[in-house]
Design brief:
The protein has 121 residues and is mainly α. It folds into 2 domains: 82 residues, Helix Hairpins (Orthogonal Bundle); 30 residues, no CATH class. Helices cover 67% and strands 0% of the residues. It has 6 helices and no strands.
């Protein structure tokens, strides 16, 4: 299995099956899943705390660190997939719609090579 051959539906089914086999859906309220995703995101951020930009980029060169980061990314992703399942959200549809809104909010001709937290009025 790889990114190029696995669908989002496949991944959503894997996390649904995992939760069902353990009877965990009873604990998977949107609130709990959102909080879990945030906690796992904080654990991901710990790997980069106090690193310079260059040091953070170099983390991919150390196999053990890269593996630990991949584990944390997977934990965040698992919570988000679970949340999408619980809330019946089609992630592909939501993602594409959000990218369209982002493109409208940050047009290439105004933002190419520029960083701004909010678009110009």
């Amino acid at each position: 299995m790889s990114d190029s051959t696995t669908t989002i539906a496949d991944l959503k089914q894997i996390v649904a099956d995992f939760a069902d086999q353990r009877d965990w859906r009873q604990f998977h309220s949107p609130k709990n899943l959102a909080m879990g995703a945030a906690i796992e995101a904080a654990e991901l951020m710990e790997h980069f705390l106090w690193l310079t930009q260059k040091q953070s980029e170099e983390t991919a060169q150390d196999p053990q660190t890269k593996h630990q980061i991949a584990e944390e990314i997977s934990d965040v992703f698992c919570y988000l997939l679970n949340l999408a399942n619980v809330m019946n959200i089609d992630l592909s549809e939501a993602f594409r719609a959000k990218m369209i809104r982002n493109a409208e909010k940050y047009p290439v001709d105004k933002y190419h090579g520029k960083f701004q937290s909010e678009p110009e009025a």
